[in-house]
Structures are given as C-alpha cells and as structure tokens.
Specification:
heterodimer; A: 358 residues; mainly alpha; two-stranded antiparallel ribbon; 14 helices; 3% strand; B: 257 residues; alpha/beta; Rossmann fold; 2 domains; six-stranded mixed sheet; four-stranded antiparallel sheet; 10 helices; 41% helix
Chain lengths: 358, 257
C-alpha cells in the first residue's frame, strides 16, 4: 500500500537504472535529506548534536568507506583506524602548514593522502585473501599508529602529542575548532556524508562496483571476463581509504576537537567493521544503519534506566549496558545475517503488498 | 594466416602427470570444434591454457597471428576469448542483469572519475551497454529472470546465463566446457540450438568440450579426440566416428560399459 508501484512503468533504461527506481523512495529520501539539513541545527540540543548526530555522521562516512572495500570488493580490512589516522594527521599538518587553504580542500587532500597509504597497504591483497589479508591490514593499523606516536613532526612537536583542530571557516561560518557551533559542524559533516554517500552509490551501481562484486563473488570468473584483479582491488583499497581518511579528519576536526593516536587504535577498526557487518555488507544504506546502531544503542542503554526510573550504581549500569549491547549484536546477526539493510529490504517488500499479502 | 587460433606443439605437466603432450591444433574462423576424450584426457587443461589460467611448459598459442602464450586471463578476455565453466562460475549474489553487464566490462571505458558523477558519460555508457545486454537476454529467452539473483536459478538456466555472460563479451572465440553437462534432454536441445544460432548469427568460433556424443556429432564441424594428453584423431564427425583408434580409446569402451 505504502509502496504501491502499480502504474510506475520504466520506459527508458536510464530510469530503470536509477538509484531509487520507486517514486515513493525518491520523495522520502529527498524530504529526509532536506529535513536533516534544516531541523537538527535549529531544534536539537547541544547534547544531541555533539554526542549523537555528529559522531553518527562521521562514523557513517567511515562505514561507507569500509563497506566499499569489505562489503563490495570482499577484501577484509582491519586497518580502518590506521587509515582514519592518516586522514586526521594529514588534515592537521595541511591546515597548520597552509593556514589559508580552504578546510574543504584540506579534508579532500587528507583523504587523498589516506588513499595513497591505502593503495600501498592494498598491494598484498593480490596474493593473500580472507583472514590472512585481515592480518596484513592489521599490520598497517599498528604500523601507522606507531609511526604517528614516534615521529613528533606529525604533531608539530607538541609535547602533549595531541593534534588540535584550528579555527577554520566555510563561507564565513566557523566550522572547526573550539569556537565553532555544533550546528555548523553538524551541517559540515552532513554535507560530506550526503555527497560522498551519493558518490559511493554511483560507484557501486556502475562498472567499477560490478567489478568489485565480481572479484568478491568469484575472482577466477572475474578474470576471464577481463577484470584485472590487482587494479580492481587496489582501486577498492584506495577509494575506501579515501573515505576513511576524510572520516578520520572529520573525527578530529568536527567531533573531538583534539585527539591523540589513542582515538584511532584497533578498537576503532573493529567498531567500524561491526557497523558494516551489522548494517549489511555490500549496502550503502547499511553503512548508515550500522553506524546508527553502534552509536545510538549505547546512548539509549545509558539513558534507559533513568527513563524507567531505576536506580542503579554507575558501574552496574555500565556492565549491563555492555551485556545488552553484545546480546543485541548477536541477536541481530542471528535474525538477519545480512544485516539491518536486508531487514529493511524485506520490510519494504512486505509493505508493497500490505495490507493484502496475497 | 588461415587459422584464427593456432596451438603449436603445446605441452603441460602437473608434477609427474603429463596432462597435455605436444598437442597441435588449428581452428579456422567460424568453426564449431568439439574436443572429446575420456576423463583426464587433458581437455579442460587445453581450455585453461587457451584462456591463460595455465601457461604451457612448451609450445605456442597464437590468436589471429599474435602470440598469447604468456598472457594473463584478463588480457586474453580483452582480445575476445570468452568461456564458460564445467561447474558454473557465475556471480551468485548478483542478478542476471548484473552478471551480463559484467560480461560487457572490457567494452566499457568509464573510469573512476566518470563513475563518481555517474550522470553524463557513465550513464550514457551504461545505457548503451544495457541495450546490448537486452539483446542477449532476448536471444537466450531469459527476459523474466533479469532481476533474479543467479544463485537462485535452476541449474540449466544458470548454464544459460553463463553462456549469456560469455556472449556479452562479443567474443571472437567462445570456449565452452561441458555446456550440457548435467542437463536433461530438452535443456540439451535448447543449448545446442543456442550454440548453433550464435555461430550462425555472429560467426563466433566455438570450441566445446562435451561428453554427449549425440550432441557432439550433431553440431560440430570438426571433432578432435584427445587421449592421455595427445591428439589421437581429428576430422569430421563421421570420420572420427569410424576411426578405429577412437573406438578403441573411447567410444568402444564406453559402449561396453
């Protein structure tokens, strides 16, 4: 009923290959995007923007990046945190070395640096696969963090070893640094994730995305139809690392304000990997859903006892929170191993027929 | 140079097993050549060498006069050699349409930057190639399966989709490894008809490995018989059928069995 598609005929291949072939989807997504730009900066509290929405957007971008690599191209990576760190430290170096460089350009260049590093660490993927590749990328993670800890040049010789976001403006509005409002930072993060989400969607529905999925599903068959494995895998590593790099820069510049390498340790890699798995491997929408799940559920669990009027010690509450969170992850993986995106797809199929399922 | 594909004195051994020994074969353009032989005769190894999975220990393989002996599979695909597999190598999670579009991969040019934007160059290309893919979908009569994931299709249809993916490459040479293996009579007849139609309509040179002698004798221009990695006979179906060496090595035994 809600998703009634009767009467929607495709008369051109272009319209058949559109991102949202169903009219209702197009309308809803457009409205949601406009609302996302307008409503939260105007209405949401400082807490919601700073502690919920901004990290959600930043992690969504990182999850899209990892999903391109792991979900679409099938290359398991545990180096996400490292690649995010490359983005963050490059953005820091670039913005302090070239104070007049536009902050958007800084983010993009930081992404490019991360892409280069990702390409380098993607080279072993031609020879090693699966879990072994994961271990190789784990080496990237540890090496990069070690490098940023060891070489003081990366933090401009700050004795504290932290990098701090300087004040930078876009169109006359302060978007980074301690004096930027959370609303401005939110809009900045949203703009990036909206544009790059769209770009990712374009990539995966075209020639390159199909080549990635072919390598993932059956690499031998991919080769005999003319897909070059090394080139295709390296592109996946490069583009994925670009996304992670930009997300890493955002993590420091838009969310944390300042950070040290601890913010990019291996836990970060696992966190993003969980988002991708729970959200749905091989789904851009899943990247958003997974990020939302991992960011929102702990916040919800933290506040739940308060809403319910339960009085618990902080330690007990923290433990219960971890237990429920872990339980939920397992529950969702059992109910739908293909992630939240698949659940949504099934719901949509049902809604097309509802309320008359026959 | 009359032969489109020329295999000269090719040998391949795996450890102590001589899979293919000093095999020579010339395939003129437009021919349907069947390669038959008992199990382990080296038929699949031969196909694997033609499309670059294995490189021969000795000898030379030339496509239209150009040496492709040491080329990688993806390069050979770009030169117009497509194949299907004995045990089906479709991309199971992807739809029939995506599988066929992947077959067009070597003909598509849009790079990373064009794909970023999509609207414009990349879209135009997608649509142009979609047309070609739709032709193949019509040809193979799989219109109703476009959006189905290939993994969910019955075996015979998977084989058909795999043929479609190979055809999407617009191949000069089509290598088919047991295209009718495991099919029932009706499916076999359909597949034989497709192979003949492809050959007739596009003049595609076809090399196929097949165990069903009825089909082989019906559709082949020429039959080559391998045994223990060596060519023991080659000629028209009738010639091969009456060749005493063939009967001894292969047909005779299978008749008694």
């Amino acid at each position: 009923m809600i998703y009634r598609t009767a009467g929607q005929f495709k008369t051109t291949y272009a319209s058949d290959q559109a991102i949202f072939p169903i009219v209702q989807d197009r309308v809803v997504v457009t409205l949601a995007l406009v609302a996302a730009f307008v409503v939260p900066p105007a209405l949401a509290s400082e807490y919601w923007l700073q502690a919920v929405l901004i990290p959600l957007l930043v992690y969504a971008l990182a999850a899209i990046g990892l999903n391109l690599l792991t979900g679409y191209a099938g290359q398991l990576s545990l180096g996400t945190g490292g690649f995010m760190a490359v983005g963050a430290y490059s953005a820091f170096k670039l913005s302090t070395a070239f104070p007049h460089l536009d902050i958007v350009a800084v983010f993009l260049l930081a992404g490019l640096v991360a892409a280069g590093v990702g390409l380098l660490f993607g080279i072993p993927s031609l020879r090693i696969k699966g879990f072994y590749l994961a271990v190789a990328t784990l080496a990237a993670q540890f090496f990069l963090i070690w490098l940023f800890n060891k070489v003081a040049w990366f933090v401009n010789y700050a004795p504290s070893g932290t990098i701090t976001a300087p004040d930078r403006e876009v169109l006359g509005v302060l978007v980074t640094g301690p004096n930027a409002t959370s609303g401005a930072r939110y809009v900045m993060a949203l703009a990036f994730v909206a544009i790059f989400g769209l770009v990712a969607k374009n990539l995966v529905r075209g020639r390159l995305g199909r080549a990635w999925m072919a390598i993932r599903d059956r690499d031998i068959a991919a080769e005999i139809i003319g897909i070059r494995p090394l080139r295709t895998k390296l592109l996946a590593f490069g583009i994925s690392s670009f996304y992670c790099g930009v997300a890493g820069a955002e993590l420091v510049f838009l969310y944390l304000g300042s950070a040290e390498t601890l913010a990019f340790d291996v836990n970060q890699s696992f966190l993003v990997l969980f988002m991708v798995i729970i959200g749905g491997l091989g789904s851009i929408l899943g990247s958003f859903l997974g990020a939302a799940f991992i960011v929102l559920v702990p916040i919800f669990l933290t506040n739940a006892p308060h809403w319910l009027g339960l009085n618990m010690s902080v330690a007990l509450q923290k433990h219960i929170e971890l237990m429920i969170f872990g339980g939920l992850i397992i529950f969702f993986l059992i109910v739908e191993p293909h992630g939240l995106a698949r659940l949504w797809q099934i719901t949509k199929e049902k809604l097309r027929l509802w309320p008359f399922p026959h | 140079m009359s032969a489109q594909l020329e295999i000269r004195d090719v040998s391949k051994a795996f450890g102590g097993v001589q899979a293919v020994a000093r095999l020579s074969l010339e395939v003129p353009p437009g021919e349907i050549l069947s390669v038959i032989g008992p199990n382990g005769a080296g038929k699949t190894t031969l196909l694997n060498m033609i499309n670059g999975f294995y490189h021969p220990d000795r000898g030379r393989i030339a496509l239209e006069g150009a040496d492709i002996t040491r080329h990688r599979p993806s390069q050979i695909a770009e030169l117009g050699v497509a194949r299907t597999f004995q045990n089906i190598a479709l991309f199971k999670g992807m739809t029939v349409l995506d599988n066929l579009m992947l077959g067009r991969h070597v003909h598509m040019k849009s790079g990373v930057l064009a794909s970023f934007a999509y609207w414009g160059l990349a879209q135009k290309e997608e649509v142009a190639h979609r047309r070609r893919v739709e032709d193949i979908i019509d040809f193979l009569k799989i219109q109703d399966l476009r959006r189905r994931p290939t993994g969910s299709l019955p075996y015979g249809l998977q084989k058909r989709v795999e043929l479609g993916r190979a055809l999407a490459l617009d191949p000069k040479i089509l290598l088919l490894d047991e295209p009718m293996g495991g099919m029932n009579q009706e499916e076999k007849e359909d597949m034989a008809r497709f192979i003949l139609d492809v050959n007739e309509e596009w003049g595609t040179t076809t090399i196929l490995i097949e165990h069903d002698m009825g089909v082989v004798m019906d559709i082949s221009d020429r039959v080559t018989v391998l045994d223990m990695g060596q060519k023991i006979s080659s000629g028209s179906p009738d010639e091969v059928r009456s060749d005493p060496r063939v009967i001894k090595a292969y047909l005779g035994e299978s008749r008694r069995a």
